[in-house]
Amino acid sequence: MGLYAQDAKALQETARNFSKEGDFSNAVLVLNKAHDLEPNNLSVSKDLALVYYQKQDYPKMQATIKPLLERPDADVEVFQLGGMLYKALADGKESERVYKKALKIFPDSGPLLSDYGELLWAKQDYSAIKLWEHGIQADPTCTGNYYNAARYYYFTRDKAWSLIYGEMFVNMESYSRRTVEIKGLLVEGYKKLYTDADIMKNQDAKNEFVVALLTALNKQAEIAKKGITAETLTMIRTRFILDWFEKNAAKFPFKLFDYQRQLLKEGSFNAYNQWLFGSVQNAAAFEAWTNTHSSEYKQFTAAQSNRMFKSGAGQYYQTTSK
Questions:
Q1: Alpha-carbon separation of residue 80 from 77, 111, 115, 188, 248 (angstroms)
Q2: How many CB atoms lie within 10 A of CB 203?
Q3: How confident is the model at residue 3 (pLDDT cuts 50, 70, 90)?
Q4: Can you list the alpha helix ranges (DSSP code H) found in 56-158?
Q5: 25, 37 in Cβ contact below 8 A?
């Protein structure tokens, strides 16, 4: 039995290598052999369901995943796969049933809250934000909720949370397709921030964190009149951090602002803002900047690759979407 278990595990690793190469047919072949050896192995069955999804063989995926959804040891990944299947089949009703069942078992699962919120969002059910906010509060390492919440708030009148969640997201998921999208959203979000003469117009005046944030940013409105660029944002945000730590940090400790202050002390804040804003706003200007500041930029990116940004415990200040 031990030999069989080892064989099944080895076959599973072989199949995963085939999947990485995009050879899904061989992956299915090998996983089916592993499944024959250990038909109750949940991990092997999940891999098989995922490869069928990647092959877009939804009937076989459904045959694989349906029994797993009923197992008492079904984990978060099983329910995610179930949701993915029924989304692909455009069966919103069944997909929603899967997520509701899953969240009764795993109510604080960030990935499930993110995925279910996306399903609701696709139906223009804006209660999705409650799921994403719950995910940010309960499972703060899950990037999907920050991504979705940042996009949601950007398309509302909000000026604070789209910027906060967007920047947290790109520091948690620094080099993906979604990162580029949210960087662009951040640039446009800062333009939106300074559009109204009254920065608190239509904002949550009952949330003390939001008021403190926007009040501090409003002090830099004169710089914003020069236009929103990587250079002006560096100036705005440098002065913001100095002001924040003088007046608000004790009351509202916040990991993102701690990180920005750390970069300032290291002399990397300029490079960080170029990476964050310049890289998406003006490719030619960004390339010119990195060429003339190559050592500074390399130092920042090297340090960044060795950092793992995480939200601080007890630093959840959103109040309106619960």
A1: 5, 8, 8, 32, 40
A2: 18
A3: very low
A4: 58-69, 76-88, 92-105, 110-122, 128-138, 143-154
A5: no
The residues, ordered by sequence, that sit 6+ positions from 18 with a Cβ below 8 Å of its Cβ are: 24, 26, 27, 30
Q: What is the separation of C-alpha 290 from the centre of its chain, rounded to a whole number of angstroms?
A: 27
Query: Does 269 score more than 60 pLDDT?
Result: yes
Cα 106 to Cα 77: distance, rounded to the nearest angstrom: 11
Averaged over 97-126, what is the pLDDT? 97
How crowded is residue 129: how many other Cβ atoms within 10 Å of its Cβ? 22
For residue 12, give both structure tokens.
């599973």
Residue 319 pLDDT grade (very low, low, confident, very high; cuts 50, 70, 90): confident
- Mean pLDDT for 122-148 is 96
| CA–CA distance, 114 with 131 (Å, rounded to integer) | 7
pTM metric for this prediction: 0.92
Residue 320: per-residue pLDDT: 72
In contact, 162 and 182? CB cutoff 8 Å: no
Task: Provide the Cα torsion 94, 80, 121, 103; round to 10°.
Answer: 80
Chain centroid offset of residue 240 CA: 25
Contact 115, 144 (CB under 8 A): yes
Take residue 198 and report the two structure tokens written for it: 């009254």
